[in-house]
Specification:
The structure is a single chain. This protein is α+β, with helices and mostly antiparallel strands. It is built from 9 helices and 13 strands. The protein has a 5-stranded mixed β-sheet, sandwiched between helices. A hairpin with a 4-residue loop joins strand 11 and strand 12. The termini are far apart.
Length: about 425
């Protein structure tokens, strides 16, 4: 027995019941006939609630609120024991935002949430997207060029602090040029000369060049590329991986420069010569970027390179003094000078060397090598010492020479200032009063 007052509702778990006309208990449309007392037969049911977990119906009807009538109702209810519905991202939140692949390996958890749709994960775990292969491919030599600038480096003997590189995409052949600055006008001049020489040598035209979009490639260079019909591909800012060929070459060249300078005990001022030497050797080394580990030199020139003329960077050598440079009054002076190798100029045996005695760069083919012996640090310091001492001596002589001939000044223990004599006094005439 249940007493419900003022209720005119029916509760059911059947959704189809909402489409039928429903009246009070006792009507043929109402299942689960109820036993009611003191109920007017014509009293309708005014509303109905849907209870999803309710099997069967539960009806409760009373008379008008003015009439207090007890109603006997018979309930046919069976509540199902269901697990509460879990949000799909609940375990993603509980376990501190792991990925879907990680959650899927936990057997106790049925992961259905895709962590790629979590905005918090995007904010907290954002990373760079993969780099895709270029859509432009070279079909002949020098058609596609990768270029980049690097620096600043310590000032060389020629006052060079930057360098620019060019790499052929098809052959991986390398060209390098030290620069005094990174101005667009300087790079334009270097590129124009290199382009004219390269196209005349290979017989092909440059079609595309990829750079990192730095300031040195803007304005003048962009206009210049457009004027000569070269496609300029730019990479996104702060993404050197997009210009990976040129960037990887920079690292390779710097590693080679650093190594040979350390091996030769040479100052950093020789970095420009070391750079040119490193690029020369790089073109003659096999690379995995080419088929069958060929060398860039062979791929570009179509002939294998020669190694007989190669020498290490920086070993001791002796350079013959030309007769035009020898002192004519003395026949007992040495006929060679000590130097170190900087670069092989040509395969004919011409070398560029640094003369340790004159502190100048010489180019000669009359060179005797000691390839396993290298100068020490003191060799370069001693070479600097005479000139520095001479400079200091000259400056000291110029400064101290006038002082040596100057008279010795008189020193007074006490100085007395007296009044001038009366004849030297100055009087001011006054105008007469009117």
């Amino acid at each position: 027995m249940m007493t419900i007052r003022g209720s005119k509702k029916r509760r059911t778990g059947d959704k189809e019941a909402f489409g039928d006309e429903v009246k009070k208990s006792g009507d043929e449309n109402v299942p689960n006939q109820e036993i009611m007392e003191h109920v007017t037969p014509s009293q309708p049911i005014t509303s109905m609630d849907l209870v999803p977990d309710l099997e069967g119906d539960m009806s409760a009807i009373t008379t008008s609120p003015k009439i207090n009538t007890k109603i006997n109702t018979k309930f046919n209810t069976k509540i199902k024991a269901k697990t509460p519905r879990i949000p799909p991202n609940l375990w993603h939140l509980r376990l501190d935002h792991p990925s879907y692949s990680t959650l899927s390996h936990i057997p106790q958890i049925k992961a259905t949430f895709d962590s790629n749709h979590c905005q918090v994960c995007i904010l907290g775990k954002s990373m760079k997207t993969p780099y895709y292969v270029d859509d432009f491919t070279a079909n002949h030599k020098i058609a596609y060029i990768h270029s980049d600038t690097c620096g600043p480096c310590p000032a060389s003997f020629s006052r060079l602090i930057y360098y620019i590189t060019f790499v052929c995409d098809l052959t991986r052949h390398v060209w390098v040029y030290p620069l005094p600055n990174k101005k667009a006008a300087t790079i334009k001049n270097i590129f124009a000369k290199w382009k004219a020489e390269l196209e005349l040598e290979s017989g092909y035209k440059i079609k595309c060049i990829r750079t990192d979009g730095g300031g040195e490639y803007k304005r003048e260079m962009t206009t210049y590329f457009e004027s000569i019909g070269i496609k300029h591909l730019l990479t996104a800012p702060y993404n050197p991986q997009s210009n990976g060929v040129a960037e990887r070459l920079n690292r390779t060249l710097i590693d080679m420069m650093r190594t040979i300078l350390i091996n030769g005990n040479m100052p950093h001022e020789f970095w420009a010569e070391a750079l040119v030497h490193a690029a020369y050797i790089k073109n003659r080394l096999p690379t995995g970027s080419l088929k069958d580990y060929k060398t860039p030199y062979e791929t570009y020139h179509d002939v294998p390179p020669s190694y007989d003329h190669l020498r290490p960077f920086g070993p001791i050598c002796y350079v013959s003094i030309p007769s035009q440079r020898r002192e004519k009054l003395s026949k007992l002076e040495p006929r060679a000078q000590k130097a170190c190798i900087l670069q092989c100029v040509s395969k004919s045996g011409t070398y560029k060397v640094w003369n340790l005695e004159t502190r100048k760069v010489d180019v000669s083919k009359d060179v005797i090598f000691y390839e396993t012996q290298f100068p020490s640090r003191t060799d370069f310091e001693q070479a600097n010492a005479p000139e520095a001492n001479a400079a200091r001596t000259n400056v000291s002589d110029k400064v101290n020479a006038p002082m040596a001939n100057a008279p010795t000044p008189q020193i007074f223990d006490e100085i007395i200032v007296e009044k001038p004599p009366p004849g030297a006094q100055v009087y001011t005439a006054k105008e007469p009063q009117k």
